[in-house]
Every structure is written in structure tokens, then in C-alpha cells.
Write a structure and sequence with these properties.
The protein is of the alpha/beta class and 369 residues long. 40% of the residues lie in helices and 13% in strands. It binds pyridoxal-5'-phosphate. Pyridoxal-5'-phosphate (PLP) binds next to helix 4.
């Protein structure tokens, strides 16, 4: 494979090949990509259209428009019972550049940053890109893929709850213990999408932590490129300066429209989607187990199932391609999520309708069963 400055997403290769197969006229069932298929609420779309007609849509403040920062702060008060000042909320073009800027500031000021393996691949790739010291903490099925307190050895730790790829949720007590030992970066982008209990925010247990969140998952707005950070106020000047330089401002039309996301009816509409995802999760879980995948940690949130495929393979990358070519089902190889046992695992996403999940399972059954 060609040498790159950071590791690629291996799943993109799967997706490219899936697109080729589709161009040749065959249907592929997509269980690989983590992008919700459900429509963005109408009220948000209407607001965007109105903004285009009304304003010239120039740059905004680098940290985002005040009404959106206020709306996010208000949401934390209502949703989690925590008081957040709008000045601590920094709006970013998707959560990704926010995370990149945050890691830079924390890496330079506090030092080494840990991330989980398996875990969301961008964490380690961003650290590498920033030339910062990062340390993988292996997490295992026996502990629901959560970090054990005794394995925290760096001044900063990134956790993702509910997690990609495992769907694990950290309890309030677990967040408290971890935050007493290290500075936590809590990626809460899958908040709102939970199937057993709620996911607590790190801000419920400490003010000395950073939250990463955004509009791409629960709010369904991937292409609108909007996210946010909530940070202790000492971090704001550095983050503002970095964002001024690297992004100038988040997309103006998206910011104006996103204020509507926090309206009561819009939130109610979004909350109803959780039941849709829950049905999909239950169907996929049952089907995968019947086929012979082992699911050591059933997802409590997000929209993925991290499945042990050791009954079929010890090379997740080859297996993903084999399943694509032979069964015409696209899945994500475990290799994307790190090195710790990942060759035995694959990730299934349930961002597609029930009938397609049904058909995907049938194809897998025929091929593997
Ligand atoms: C755990 C996690 N964090 C962050 C992101 C980035 O999302 P965005 O940049 O669209 O806000 C993703 C996207 O898949 C994710 O899975």
C-alpha cells in the first residue's frame, strides 16, 4: 500500500469498490458508513432557505454566532442540568476541526494524550498529523471496551461515549473516576442516540474537561458541517486563535438554521428517531448472532455493532472485501479502529432501513451460513 502521512480510512476502499459494483448494475447493501439516512427536520431546512434569501451570508465570528452558542448552552442546562456559559461554547465546521484544534492545545500545554484501541480512527490519526505524543490504551470486550482506571497514565485521555465502533456508554461514576485522574476529552457526538438509559455528559461530573459534540449524528446534519466544543474558559483564547487561522468561520447558513434544532418540536421529532434506530439495532443483532457472529458488547448507543467475526476470518480487511464481492454487502473492517484484536472484528452500521438490513442479513446467511 502507498505510504501516506496519516492512515487512510480502509472502509473508503470498501466503499469505492461497492460503488464500482453498483455502476456495473448490481445492488449492494450498505452497512458500512456511519451517516444517518433519516431526513433533516423540515423546520431546520426552512430556516436555511430563509437565511439564503435574507442575508448575504458572509463570514461569522470564528467561534460561531452568539444565538447558536446560547442555544447550545441552554440545551446543556435543560438536557444535563449543567450551567455552561455561551463563551465556553465554540462552534466549528463539523466536530472534526474542533477536535483537531483542541488536541493541538491540550497536547502542547498538558502533554501526552491517550485514546482507546479499538476506537474512532481519527483520534490517533489527528495526533500523528499534529506530531503530538499519543498513547493507545487497549480496551477489551470483558470491560465493555471501556478504559480501566489503572490503565490511565497520561495527562489527557479521550473517551467516546456512546462509542464508535462499540456503542458502549460510560456511566457517570466511571466518568467521575477517570476525570479525577486525568483531563478528559469527552466525544459526545452520539449523545441522544441511546437504547438503554441515557449517556451522561462529562460536564455533569467536572468542569475541568472538554466536550466534543456536533450536528452530524443525532441531529442528522452530516453535510451541513457543524459541531461544537465546550471547554474551560482558559482554553478559549488559544482555540479561537487556531480556528481563526485554519477555518475562519463555520458555515453561516448552517449556523443560522441549526439554532432551530433546539426548538421543542424539532427535538421531539429527533427523539422519535431513536425508536427507528432501536428496531434496526435489534433486528441486526439477532440476525448477526444467528449467522455466527459473536457480539461481546451489545451497543447501548450510537448506530454500530462491533462484531467478532473469528468464526469466519482472522483478517478483517480481506473478509470485508470477500463479503462485498461474494455477498454484495458492504461492511467496515476492524482494522480501521486500531490494532488490538481488530483483525477478528468487523463493524456493521444500522444507518439504513429495516428492509435493507433484512436483505443484508439474508445475503450474509446465504454466503456464510
Ligand atoms: C466518534 C466520532 N467523533 C467525531 C466524528 C466527526 O463528525 P463530524 O466532523 O461530522 O462532526 C465522528 C464521525 O463519524 C465520530 O464517529
Amino acid at each position: 500500500m502507498e505510504r501516506l502521512l496519516v492512515e487512510p480510512f480502509y472502509v473508503m476502499k470498501v466503499l469505492e469498490r461497492a460503488k464500482e459494483i453498483e455502476r456495473s448494475g448490481e445492488k449492494v447493501i450498505h452497512l458500512e458508513i456511519g451517516e444517518p439516512d433519516l431526513p433533516v427536520p423540515q423546520k431546520v431546512k426552512e430556516e436555511a432557505k430563509k437565511a439564503i434569501d435574507t442575508y448575504e451570508l458572509k463570514y461569522t465570528e470564528s467561534v460561531g454566532i452568539l444565538p447558536l452558542r446560547e442555544a447550545i448552552a441552554g440545551y446543556y442546562e435543560r438536557e444535563y442540568g449543567v450551567k455552561v456559559k455561551p463563551e465556553q461554547v465554540i462552534v466549528t465546521p463539523g466536530s472534526s476541526p474542533g477536535l483537531l484544534a483542541l488536541l493541538k492545545v491540550l497536547g502542547e500545554t498538558l502533554g501526552e494524550i491517550s485514546y482507546t484501541d479499538p476506537g474512532y480512527p481519527c483520534y490517533k490519526n489527528m495526533l500523528k498529523f499534529l506530531n503530538l505524543k499519543g498513547r493507545a490504551v487497549n480496551v477489551y470486550p470483558e470491560t465493555d471496551f471501556k478504559v480501566k482506571l489503572e490503565n490511565v497514565e497520561t495527562p489527557v485521555l479521550m473517551v467516546n461515549s456512546p462509542s464508535n465502533p462499540t456503542g458502549t456508554i460510560y456511566s457517570k461514576e466511571e466518568l467521575r473516576e477517570l476525570s479525577e485522574k486525568t483531563f478528559l476529552v469527552s466525544d459526545e457526538i452520539y449523545h441522544g442516540l441511546t437504547y438503554s438509559g441515557r449517556a451522561p455528559s462529562v460536564l455533569e461530573v467536572t468542569r475541568n474537561a472538554a466536550v466534543v459534540n456536533g450536528f452530524s449524528k443525532f441531529f442528522l446534519m452530516t453535510g451541513w458541517r457543524l459541531g461544537w466544543l465546550i471547554v474551560p474558559k482558559e482554553l478559549v483564547p488559544d482555540l479561537t486563535a487556531i480556528l481563526q487561522n485554519i477555518v475562519i468561520s463555520p458555515p453561516t447558513v448552517s449556523q443560522i438554521a441549526a439554532v432551530k434544532c433546539f426548538d421543542k418540536e424539532v427535538l421531539e421529532e429527533l427523539r422519535r428517531n431513536v425508536e427507528i434506530f432501536r428496531k434496526r439495532r435489534d433486528l441486526l443483532l439477532k440476525g448477526l448472532k444467528e449467522i455466527g457472529f459473536k457480539i461481546p458488547a451489545e451497543p447501548q448507543g450510537a448506530f454500530y455493532i462491533y462484531a467478532d467475526a473469528s468464526n469466519f476470518t482472522d483478517n478483517s480487511y480481506e473478509f470485508a472485501f470477500e463479503v462485498l464481492e461474494r455477498a454484495k454487502v458492504a461492511i467496515t473492517p476492524g482494522r480501521d479502529f486500531g490494532y488490538n484484536g481488530t483483525e477478528r472484528f468487523v463493524r456493521f452500521s444500522f444507518c439504513t432501513e429495516l428492509s435493507k438490513i433484512e436483505e443484508g442479513l439474508e445475503r450474509l446467511r446465504r454466503y456464510l451460513g
